[in-house]
Structures are given as C-alpha cells and as structure tokens.
C-alpha cells in the first residue's frame, strides 16, 4: 500500500506540474524570454533546472519536497491567471493568452491534483507513524482505504460543483445574460459565501 | 484553531482578496474551493457519542500478579478514524494485548471489545479509571481529544516471603529472634504480679474479694484486683529508609519497591511468630510510625502505610533539606525500648553516603538490645540495587565492582551486626535470608 500511495501521489504531483508548466509556457512573457522556442530542449532544460534548484533549496530548508513543488505549480499557474485580471497592466494583450474559461478549468485541475497529492502524502506518513504507535497493520490499511475512498468522492464532488459554478459563472457573464440574472447570481453567490463563513465560524468558535 | 482549517481559511481569504483586488474572475471563483471544502467538511462529523465500560479481573492484587482488563467501547455516531487509549499508570507493565487501538467508524454504530493483560510491579493504590480517545475528522484531518472515566481503582499489596520448611535437619541461623521481654499487653499468664485498685473495664473475676473486704475494714471502699504478668511478647522494630537513595532503579524495578516487599515479608513473618512489631520510616519527607502491636490488625496497619509510602519518599525535592538521621529517629523512640530488649531491623541501600548514619545508629541500638551470640539483635538488610539499572554485560561488571567497593567500606560495620545483602535481580528475599544459615546442628 505504501508504494501504491507514493506512486499515486507522485503521479498527481507530476500531472499538476505538467498542467502548470503548460500554463506557464502559454504566456507571452515566457514565450518572449525563450524567443518562441517553447519546446526546444534548451528552454525545457533551463526552466526545469531553475525549478529543480528552487525545489532543492527549499527542501534543504523546509524538508518538504511536496509542498515546494505545490508552490512552484501555483507560481507557474499564477503567470497565466493574473493577466486575466481587469485591473492589471498588460491585460490588454489578453487575446494572446489561453481563453479565461480554459485557464480557470486548468487551474482548478492543478489545485485538485495538488490536494490529492498532498493528502496521499499525509496518508503515507500515517502508514509510517501508526505502526510505531502500536496500531495493527490490518486496521491501518482498512482506515486508509476508507479515508481514501471518502476523500476521493468528497474531493471529486466538491470539484464537480466548483466546475459547474465556474461554467455557469462564465456563461452568465460572457453570453450576454440579462442584468437581473447577473444580479440574482451575484446575490446568490454572496449569500452562499456569507452562509459558509457564518457556518464555519460557528463551528470553529462556538462549538465546545 | 486547527492547522488544516487555518490553512484553508487563509487560502480562501488570499484568493478572494486578490480576486477582488485584480478584478480577476478566475481567482474569485477558485476561492470557492477551499470555502466549500471547509463548509461541507464541517457538515460531516467525526466519531462521537462514545461510551466505554471497563472491567478489571481483581480489585486487590499482590505485586507481580497479572490482571485482565476488558473494555467495551461503543461509538454511536459520526464517521472517521478513532484512537482509543486506555490509561495505565507508569508502574504497570503491559504483558499481553494492547491498550491502544485505532479503528474506523463507518456509518453504522460500532461496538468494540478490547482486552489486555497488565502486571502490577509496585505496591500502592492506583486509579485505572481513565480511557482517552481521539477522533479524527475524515475531511478536515484534525483530531479531537476526549476521555471517559469509570470508577475503578486497584490496591496492589507487596509480596510476602516464600517461606519453605526445612524438614529433618535443624539449622542454626544468624537471623535472631528477639530475646523476649515482658510486655504490658498480651495474654495473661499464671505468674502473679501485684494487687492494684480496680479500674472500670477490669473483669469482675479478677477482683480479690478477700483483700477488698480487708480494705473495707480500713475504710477503703474501692475494690482491688489481682494483676498477673502478661505473656511475654518479643518486640521487633523495623526501620525503613525512605530517603532519596532508595529511589535507585527504574519505575518498574526500584530499591524502594523491594524494600517495601522486605518490610511486608519480614513483618508478616515476625507477626506470625507472635511478636510485637513496630515500623518507623526515616529520611523521607514525612516520618511514618506504626506503634508496636501484634496480630492481623497490626499487619494491616503496616500494610496500609506501606501502600502509601511510595508517595512519601520521592517528593523530597530538596536533597539537602535537614531530615532526621536514623540515629536521631532511634533516639526519639528510646522510651519504648527499656525492659523490652527489642530486635532492630534496618532496611536500607548501603552506599558511601549513609555509612556514618548506619554506623552511629547501630551503636545507639546496641545500647537498647541484647546480644544474640556474637552479634547484638540488630539486622541490616542491604538491598543491592546497582544491577537494577544494568542493561549490558559491561554495566553488570561495573555494578559488581561498585558492590565490591561497598563490601569493603562496610567491612567494619558488618562485624557489629547481622548483615544481609539482598540482590533482587539475582535472588528472592527468602534466598538472601537462607544464605546466612551458617551451619547445622
């Protein structure tokens, strides 16, 4: 189970890295730096070498390679996400970037994969710690299997809901929806966010 | 606030604020992911409504006895992993099974039976009432602590001497019996002592009617009674060292515990020989004194003190705090000794630090007791504790060297009393006592 968990978490991390790397490569500033040769061996090696040295540096300081790669992934993705901001200088060249909808979905994918990778890493740690505490191996496997099952269903469900909301949101804002529908959606979103915050704060601060 | 929740909340706020700041739709929408994770995650509750029923095979046991502990755990609601850890005091040893379990609680209520065996290693009264649990949240990945208390305590009494009868041969032993003394308590003998005035409580049959009538003629109306000598009770005084040096060893095996075992064993032996027995502790934070007495009642009085003595000796935080030396303690009880010629037993761990203390105490005791052959009726039971901490061969050799040095230091002292070295790692107390048998008659 230990090897399977490791393999799955590495696979998820790699997948997140590839998507974020693709997002980085699609940005015009990066294309300018590498003079348009995104797929040339030189640019790939150089970019990944810089990343690897950053990961190595962070690893020696924090001893957490997974978190460092996650930060790198978010950093790469942010180069593609931020130019879509309306208030940011340079947003005028937005047509040269990947479309907003696809960027949003890809960003969502990066986040979901990173969450899976980090959670599986945590499970891997349990697999090391619990036997030392005296937990039976059979019980550990059962608990981890149940946790993985539960977490996967939960994560996919939440991500699905988020994907649906993103899709609905873009459809609403970009396909000339009526003003009343936009206002209604905005209020609905605001109500959901406020409700969530109220519920979470109640659970955190007022539950003994 | 749990770390996981803090991280998710921070990510949500950072994304939301930056989304608003840059007017970025992607950031705004993605910020909903951690929020949804938190909100929906909180809807799912970790295992709760936990009840634990605990049973122990015995309420009273002796040191070294094995006890069965059974737990019936019932988890009614919630979903997720749960860790159950039954609290065992530090002086107990886990023999079989485990007192720690981690299980998965699914949608249905779960019942769990846990059983394990423990060995009591030191005497005392212990609370075994607490069972702790930790329930994990399946999504938010935090753990919630809780405990359940049952009303369970256990009394662990020290071991008794394993006495073996030697048949067919009579042996001479250096261990003395007290030389005998008249006592003010005990069974009445036929030896007439005196005529004295009647006191309320005296039996009517002891009234000397002839003497009373003679007194009446003289105008004394108060009756007089015949007083007979009481049956002689031999008296034994046990002096138990409770100073810091007795704390040598581990939580499970230490000199103090073996000294308690020795007091219990010797006390039981002398009380069964119909002796008066007194117990005094010295060197500890509090001095314990059980006045001389006989019979089962006296045994239980001493046992009660022995059970509590553990809490008395190691609380002495200040090593240099002035405490009464053994010599002072003997001197303070001197009013009990005249006419009794008691036997003294000192139970200690001899080392360089207490050489002079024991020497002067033996000298003082010699004044109040009689000689039994070559030696006065003073017995020093030295508990050799160095090997209790030895884990490998070289440490065992080192402990033997230290013990040999102690033998050299105590050379003169050994000539002044009956000296018994007891190494609990190698032999039982009975074995150590039998070693001093010097010959056959």
Provide structural commentary:
- The complex is a heterodimer of chains A (208) and B (441).
- With 208 residues, chain A is mainly α.
- Helices cover 81% and strands 0% of the residues of chain A.
- Chain B contains eleven helices and 23 strands.
- In chain B, strands 17-16-15-18-21-22 form a six-stranded mixed beta sheet, sandwiched between helices. A four-stranded antiparallel beta sheet of chain B has the order 1-3-7-5, with no helix packed on it. A four-stranded antiparallel beta sheet of chain B has the order 6-4-9-10, with no helix packed on it.
- Chain A binds chain B through residues 81-82, 84-88, 100, 103-104, 107-108, 111, 119, 122, 130, 133-135, 139-140, 142-143, 146-147, 150-151, 154, 158-159, 161-162, 165-166, 169-170, 173, 193, 195-197, 199-200, 203-204, and chain B through 1, 5, 9, 21-27, 29-30, 32-33, 35-42, 44, 79-81, 83, 98, 100-104, 106, 138-139, 141.
Please outline what is shown here.
Chain A is mainly alpha-helical and 208 residues long. Chain A is built from 7 helices and no strands.
Class inferred from helices and paired strands of chain B: alpha+beta
Number of helices of chain B: 11
Oligomer: heterodimer
Distance between the termini of chain A: 37 Å
Rg value of chain B: 33 Å
CATH domain class name of the largest domain in chain B: Alpha Beta
Approximate helicity band of chain A: over 70%
Mean of all residue-level pLDDT scores of chain A: 79
Shape of chain A: flat
Report the order of strands and helices of chain A: HHHHHHH
Q: Label the overall shape of chain B.
A: elongated
Helices of chain A, by number, come to 7
Reported for the largest beta sheet of chain B, the result is: 6 strands, mixed
CATH topology name of the largest domain in chain B: Rossmann fold
Low-pLDDT runs of 5+ residues of chain A are none
Strand residues, percent of chain B: 25-35%
Radius of gyration of chain A: 21 Å
Q: What is the CATH homologous superfamily assignment of the largest domain in chain B?
A: von Willebrand factor, type A domain
Structural class of chain A: mainly alpha
For the largest interface in this structure, which chains are involved and how many residues does each contribute? A-B, 45 and 37 residues
Q: Indicate the mean pLDDT of chain B.
A: 81
């Amino acid at each position: 189970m230990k090897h399977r968990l490791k393999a799955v978490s590495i696979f998820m991390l790699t997948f997140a890295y590839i998507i974020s790397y693709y997002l980085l490569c699609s940005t015009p500033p990066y294309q300018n730096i590498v003079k348009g040769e995104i797929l040339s061996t030189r640019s790939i090696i150089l970019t990944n070498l810089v990343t690897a040295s950053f990961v190595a540096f962070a690893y020696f300081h924090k001893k957490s390679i997974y978190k460092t790669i996650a930060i790198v992934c978010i950093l790469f993705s942010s180069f593609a996400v931020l130019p879509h901001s309306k208030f940011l200088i340079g947003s005028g060249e937005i047509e040269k970037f990947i479309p907003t909808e696809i960027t949003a979905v890809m960003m969502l994918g990066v986040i979901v994969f990173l969450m899976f990778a980090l959670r599986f890493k945590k499970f891997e740690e349990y697999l090391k710690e619990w036997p030392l505490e005296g937990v039976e191996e059979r019980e550990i496997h059962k608990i981890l299997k149940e946790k993985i099952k539960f977490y996967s269903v939960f994560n996919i469900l939440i991500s699905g809901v988020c994907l649906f909301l993103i899709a609905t949101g873009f459809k609403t804002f970009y396909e000339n929806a009526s003003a009343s529908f936009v206002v209604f959606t905005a209020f609905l979103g605001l109500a959901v966010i406020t409700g969530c915050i109220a519920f979470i704060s109640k659970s955190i601060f007022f539950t003994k | 606030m749990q770390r996981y929740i803090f991280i998710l909340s921070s990510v949500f706020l950072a994304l939301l604020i930056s989304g608003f700041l840059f007017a970025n739709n992607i950031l705004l929408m993605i910020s909903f992911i951690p929020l949804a994770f938190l909100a929906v995650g909180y809807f799912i509750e970790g295992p709760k409504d936990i009840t634990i029923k605990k049973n122990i095979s015995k309420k009273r046991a002796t040191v070294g006895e094995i006890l069965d502990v059974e737990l019936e755990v019932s988890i009614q609601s919630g979903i997720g992993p749960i860790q159950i850890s039954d609290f065992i005091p530090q002086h107990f040893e886990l023999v079989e099974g485990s007192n720690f379990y981690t299980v998965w609680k699914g949608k249905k209520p779960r019942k769990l039976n846990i059983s394990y065996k423990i060995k009591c290693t030191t005497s005392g009264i212990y609370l075994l009432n607490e069972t702790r649990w930790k329930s994990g949240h399946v999504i938010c990945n935090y753990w919630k602590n809780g405990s359940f208390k049952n009303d369970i305590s256990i009394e662990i009494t020290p071991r008794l001497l394993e006495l073996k009868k030697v048949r067919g041969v009579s042996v001479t032993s250096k261990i003395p019996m007290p030389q005998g003394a008249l006592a003010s308590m005990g069974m009445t003998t036929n030896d007439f002592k005196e005529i004295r005035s009647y006191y309320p409580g005296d039996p009517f049959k002891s009234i000397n009617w002839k003497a009373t009538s003679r007194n009446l003629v003289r105008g004394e109306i108060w009756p007089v009674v015949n007083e007979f000598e009481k049956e002689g009770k031999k008296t034994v005084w046990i002096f138990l060292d409770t100073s810091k040096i007795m704390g040598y060893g581990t939580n499970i095996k230490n000199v103090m515990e073996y000294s308690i075992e020795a007091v219990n064993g010797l006390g039981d032996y002398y009380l069964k020989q119909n002796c008066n027995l007194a117990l005094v502790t010295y060197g500890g934070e509090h001095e314990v004194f059980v006045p001389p007495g006989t019979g089962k009642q006296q045994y239980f009085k001493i046992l009660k003190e022995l059970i509590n003595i553990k809490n008395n000796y190691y609380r002495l935080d200040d090593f240099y705090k002035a405490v009464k030396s053994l010599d002072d303690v003997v001197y303070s009880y001197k009013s009990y000794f005249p006419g009794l010629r008691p036997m003294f037993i000192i139970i200690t761990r001899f080392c360089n630090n207490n050489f002079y203390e024991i020497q002067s105490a033996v000298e003082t005791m010699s004044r109040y007791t009689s000689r039994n052959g070559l030696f006065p009726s003073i017995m020093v039971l030295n508990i050799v504790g160095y090997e209790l901490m030895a884990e490998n061969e070289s440490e065992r050799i080192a402990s033997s060297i230290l013990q040999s040095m102690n033998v050299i230091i105590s050379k003169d002292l050994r000539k002044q009393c009956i000296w018994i070295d007891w190494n609990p790692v190698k032999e039982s107390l009975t074995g150590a006592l039998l070693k001093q048998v010097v010959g056959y008659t």
